[in-house]
Structures are given as structure tokens and as C-alpha cells.
């Protein structure tokens, strides 16, 4: 399982070359991607302001009302996925683009109304179309893998409890957690999460301060070193490790061979201690 960040841009082709190498040696590969950065660029083009929620604990997340969800889905499924799939096809990889909603693969429960800060004002938000993953059905990706395909999957997820009169049914879910839950459901041997940093750093300004290995049982002791999205990635990696994924790595997607380098030990590796 390989999670690539939408912010990698041109570096995505290097990850695709590594995926081709893994497929050539007989590995089954699933690719997961997000698309927040592409959705932000698209929102700017469309003149739609980007908005964020800040919860009481200080956690900041995307405010995904219906208009924002439209942009997010278009960014992920219309802007980011097609070039990723076509690059893999160009390299001879039989890639198939999917969303979590396809076949009811990933279902989620909508976040309930919450008292949060939006645009500097505290209020109750009731129209946020975000959620938490509730279940993963791995049948569709397993079927594609067995037939020799490489599934390229992203949010959104499907909300089976959506009110049909509201026009809803899709939910924005965190792409890193999406990848981790899929990896667990597929009983993957590897989960490689690529981003635009070397891994977890003790000093964000010093690439040489990389934390090479973290016991997932001791994850809480390392969370203070992470900020922003890295904190989510670190928690997600720890959850996947504890759930049984044998090899979990937070890798740097900017290198010449990012996936193979991560599998060879580059980045931050989550390890499960001996009982």
C-alpha cells in the first residue's frame, strides 16, 4: 500500500516508476492519494474561498460544505487522479482509478454538528460534509489485484445514512487514515506514506534530526515532535502498525526513488515491540 501526497507534483512520476518496479517483480500494489492541495488551487481558480474549522482543542480542519465538497471531489477525481493513472499506464502498469464510494468500498459516518470557530467567529456548524471512516470492504480492490490491476484510490467515502433529499451521500475523509484503513483491511505487508518531508524530525529546520524508528506502543511520546499534518500522519501510521501492518514507513516523496528508498529504510519506520 502506497499513499502519495497530492503536493508532490512532478515528483509523483518518480513514485510511479517505483510502482512499476514493484509490479515487475510480482508485488501487488494499491495506490492511495489525497488532493487537498489540488482542491485549494482549483478553489482559487473558481473564486471560491477556502475555509477551515478550528475545534475547541485547537485542531484545524477543512470546512467541507456542499460547495467545498464539489471542489474537493473535482480536485481529487478530475484533476489529480487522471494524470496519476495515465502516468502509470504510460509505464506499463494496469492502473484503475477509483474513489472510496465505488462499490461501497469505504463507508463513513458524518461528523455531528459541532461548536467551532469559522472565520474568527464561534458558531455551531451543521452543514459540514466530513466524516470518520466506519467500515472498509476490500472485495473490489482484492478482485482488481487478483486480475493484475493496480487500484488507484482516493476519498471521498460513501455515507449510507445520508438523507436522499439532501443530495448528500459523499463525505470528505482524511486520506492518510483512508490509506491506513485500506492497508489493514487488505492485510497489506507494507504501508508507505509519502509526503514532502524526510519523515518525523526532532527539529523541523534540520533534515539531519530525522527520527529513524518509533515503537508504535510509545507513539504518544513522539507526538509533540510533530506539527500540522505530520501529527495526523504519525497517529495514522501508529494505528496501522498496532492493527497488524508489519511495515509502516513515513517517507520522503521528493527523492529519486521514494518508494523503494522508504522500503529500504529511509524515513521514519514504525515498529511493533516484542510482547
TrEMBL record:
<feature type="domain" description="Aspartate/glutamate/uridylate kinase">
    <location>
        <begin position="2"/>
        <end position="250"/>
    </location>
</feature>
<comment type="pathway">
    <text>Amino-acid biosynthesis.</text>
</comment>
<dbReference type="Pfam" id="PF00696">
    <property type="entry name" value="AA_kinase"/>
</dbReference>
<dbReference type="InterPro" id="IPR001048">
    <property type="entry name" value="Asp/Glu/Uridylate_kinase"/>
</dbReference>
<keyword id="KW-0028">Amino-acid biosynthesis</keyword>
<keyword id="KW-0418">Kinase</keyword>
<keyword id="KW-0547">Nucleotide-binding</keyword>
<dbReference type="InterPro" id="IPR001057">
    <property type="entry name" value="Glu/AcGlu_kinase"/>
</dbReference>
<keyword id="KW-0067">ATP-binding</keyword>
<dbReference type="InterPro" id="IPR004662">
    <property type="entry name" value="AcgluKinase_fam"/>
</dbReference>
<protein>
    <submittedName>
        <fullName>Acetylglutamate kinase-like protein</fullName>
    </submittedName>
</protein>
<dbReference type="InterPro" id="IPR036393">
    <property type="entry name" value="AceGlu_kinase-like_sf"/>
</dbReference>
<keyword id="KW-0808">Transferase</keyword>
